Amino acid sequence: MALAITTLWQREIVRFYRQRSRIIGALATPILFWLVLGSGFAGSFQASEGIESLGYAEYFFPGTIVLVVLFTAIFSTISVIEDRKEGFLQAVLVAPVPRAAIVLGKVLGGSTLALGQALLLLLAAPLAGLSPTLGGLLGAIGMLAVIAVSLTTLGFMIAWKMESTQGFHAVMNLLLIPMWLLSGAFFPAAGASPWMEFVMRLNPLTYGMASIRWTLDPNSIGPDSALPSLAVSVALTCGFAIAAFVAATRMASAPLDPELA
User: Which long-range contacts (CB under 8 A, 24 or more apart) does 178-183 make?
Assistant: First the structure.
């Protein structure tokens, strides 16, 4: 079982870094978003009371890091569809290996890539005006790892049911991009319309986003912030990652649709 997990994990890493366009797309696009949107909304962004000096580029930076994780998760889980077309996935499924090991190997591979890309951007936190402590930085890395697992697992479940990469991208854009937009990465829940604030509180990524803000720079969070507490954010983010992995394992354990075989 350990050999199967390691092999699938290593295969994801090697495949991703052989395709340089995916590396550029997963890292450069969020950075471009941060530079353009951070400058464009700088004049209209109003911080919470007590942190009036907080600029939009500083506020948007944690959301950009999560966007890097999201994009890498999308790009890495495309391999599920490619493996099916090449016949590799069918060969793995008939091997005497638990389906949980297959899911774990694929998810760990994508999560490692997502975390690695996010850490590169995390190095630029001081340039964004954030000043995390060593403990906060380690906490942010830990929560980014949990977020990477949850998003990669969601991508795996979507790809498992997809026949084409075109359909995969359409569903990912319909599901995961709105999850990110309504997570507090792009704009705070405070001041949003009541129905939108309600949707944001139902969004599991909201709590992952909040945990990153708390760990990177708690001084940038105002006293009237609508952010959930750090303890609640960590608990719900970890719970969501576990629930997503269990659901993915059950999905992979079911008989494969003949149309996808």
Answer: 179/203, 179/204, 179/205, 180/63, 180/66, 180/67, 180/70, 180/205, 182/206, 183/63, 183/66, 183/208, 183/209
